[in-house]
Amino acid sequence: MDFWRFVYISLACITLGHEAAANMNFDVHIDKLERVGDTGEYFTYNYSYEKISEMKFNMGAQVQQLKELDDSYTVKALVARADLADGSEFEVMMDLQKPLCEWMRTIYKTYFYEELAKVSNFPHYDTCPLPVANYVMENYVLDTEPYSEMMSEGRWKMEMMLMKGDSVCSGISVLNTVKPKE
Ligand SMILES: *[C@@H]1O[C@H](CO)[C@@H](O)[C@H](O)[C@H]1NC(C)=O
């Protein structure tokens, strides 16, 4: 659990929202969560979180963006799913890559901005290029309940990355397992 959980839960939401297994509850276990391609050249951050109830977390974060990011960068998001059985192959559910400004105006605007604007100084979706900046998010309450109802069982791989050409500048990769509650 950390700041980026917000990112992948949103990602999961995008993908799973429409094939929601209604009224079912699942246990979500994070098997692996790692930063990829990150040398600290683009971002540094610290975060804190506190569990306030079974499904709710109170989160804070400070993000320093160290380089201006223009439309020569792209944002890549990948979601893949495998069955629970050992050795099942991953099937790609979503694989999109958009130039940064377009990503800001579409995915970020629709799925991130409204929530973030209330609790942070994260940039407006029309901001592009993104200037060097310090961002602060405070007292963001993440309620995972609505998401858990949208999950479907399996092993999920989710990645979100900032790219320049073929190289990864900074990103996050999450592997988790979703099982029906026992
Ligand atoms: C991040 O670090 C700064 C400086 O040490 C501190 O003041 C701030 O409270 C920290 N923020 C979070 C969300 O942990």
Automatic annotation (TrEMBL):
InterPro entries xref list: DUF1091
Keyword Transferase: no
Pfam families: DUF1091
Endpoints of the signal sequence: 1-22
Keywords: Signal
Source species, domain of life: Eukaryota
Name the UniProt record assigns to this protein: Vitellogenin domain-containing protein
Organism per entry: Anopheles quadriannulatus
